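Quick check before the chapter quiz. The format below is the same one you will see on the exam, so make sure you can read both the input and the output lines.
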Amino acid sequence: MDLNVFNGYNAAMQELSRNMQAEMRARYATSVKSPSSGGISKTLRAGTRQPHGIVNRITAKFAQHGVFVDRGSRKGFGGTYGSFFSERVNARVRTSEASLGKQGGSGSPAKNWINPVLDKYASLAANNGAKALSDAGALVALSGVPTTKTRR
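Here is the expected output.
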């Protein structure tokens, strides 16, 4: 199958990822009081994966502490059970015992900045993918149909 059929689809998905990145940055900037120029907005990235000539994935990346803003978490308000995490290379750290059981009580309101954007663009990407693949399937199906010439 000729992959040139997917050039329009690939371009549309790359444009979609650029729009998603711009909207994530704008949404974050309006969610916090004073966004810093070197903070989460700088680390926000959206891109596409195109391993076999067809975009099969749109990615969104941002700094880990962006989730804390989204969930309203702050330092010292860990989960119920605790866990181990890596702070630096070869440095495993356990959740502080003093913070256990305080999750959700930080007084910092949750600022839902990422989920609405991801939900919106996931449905757009699904619609674009379904349309492009159905069009390509129709081309493949129609290419196998013999054609006849009418004589006059």
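If your answer matched, good. The beta strands are 45-49, 57-61, 84-88, 91-94.
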